[in-house]
Amino acid sequence: MTDVRTHQIDSPALSPEAGFGDYVALLKPRVMSLVVFTALVGLLVAPVPVHPFVGLTSVLFIALGAGASGALNMWYDADIDRVMRRTRGRPVPAGKVAPQEALAVGLGLSGIAVVMLGLAANWFAAGFLAFTIFFYAVVYTIWLKRATPQNIVIGGAAGAFPPMIGWACATGGISVESVAMFLLIFMWTPPHFWALALFMKGDYENAGVPMLTVTHGRRATRAHILVYSVLLAPVSVGAALTGIGGPVALAAAVVLNVLFVVGALRIWRRDEVQAAADAYAVEKRFFRFSLAYLFLCFVSFLAEAALKSWGLGGW
């Protein structure tokens, strides 16, 4: 096993082929897309109308903050990323962007995103964005990820903050509804990433990352996925019963959670012989469905907001 407890960043020979696409990859655009979507939903379902220009610029700077977090994560995790098959092609471990450059990009974009969000929306939302960047880069990446198998449980809060930031851009504060959206993503994150860890096989073990699959084994991980999936259901239904919900959101929550728990049960019933025999197909399907699950939950909130604007829907 590669020991990464003593963190070191070695700069590989830089490739002369680095271009615009490498800097885009540095910002983790796939993760950014989820952040942008949930933040946008948080902004649009808020009870306070926002001018389209303010809304557009707010989401833009939230996205920039998410990208900054990704760059800081790639800077610090370069040693781990080189070991893992899933991440070794990223710009820093591939030698296309120097670690120091990734750090500079991350810090620079963080400052720009926070200040501009404060000017575009309000300073409460800007402070919330600053805290989120700090939480992801320092609390999760630098501390939790290498220290505890609860890394993705606690660290998952960073990915759950964006809808609260979007809500804060519109309202200037926090409410039951924004906390409900936070809790939905927070409880969804562990089964989503543990499913990924199951079919990534030895990547986390080779990198020395104490993911649950490494510290407690795959059987325990499957049980944890089931437990968190069951706990997610009332959180999702509860969110549908708040001011952002309604009959459409409730129906979506019920159907999606039934499918989610059924998928978790299928994973729980398997052993490694079965999983390896079909190339972890069940785990991969669950992982993909978990993405659709979160997307559709937030789409249902948008649908309720649209119905309410037409004098329909809601409780």
Task: Characterise the protein shown here.
This protein has 315 residues and is mainly α. The protein is 73% helix and 0% strand. The protein has 16 helices and no strands. α5 packs antiparallel against α6, α10 packs antiparallel against α13 and α14 runs antiparallel to α16. The N and C termini lie far apart (54 Å).
CATH class of the largest domain: Mainly Alpha
**Structural class of the helices, strands and pairings?**
mainly alpha
Gyration radius from CA atoms, angstroms = 20 Å
Uncertain stretches of 5 or more adjacent residues:
1-6
Give a brief description.
Pathway: Porphyrin-containing compound metabolism; heme O biosynthesis; heme O from protoheme: step 1/1. The protein is mostly helical.
Core attributes:
transferase, flat, Tetracycline Repressor, domain 2, UbiA_sf, mainly alpha, single chain, 315 residues, heme biosynthesis, membrane, 73% helix, 0% strand, 2 domains, disordered N terminus
Topology record:
Elements: H1 20-26, H2 29-44, H3 52-76, H4 78-83, H5 99-120, H6 123-143, H7 151-155, H8 157-160, H9 162-171, H10 176-199, H11 203-207, H12 212-215, H13 218-240, H14 247-268, H15 272-277, H16 281-309
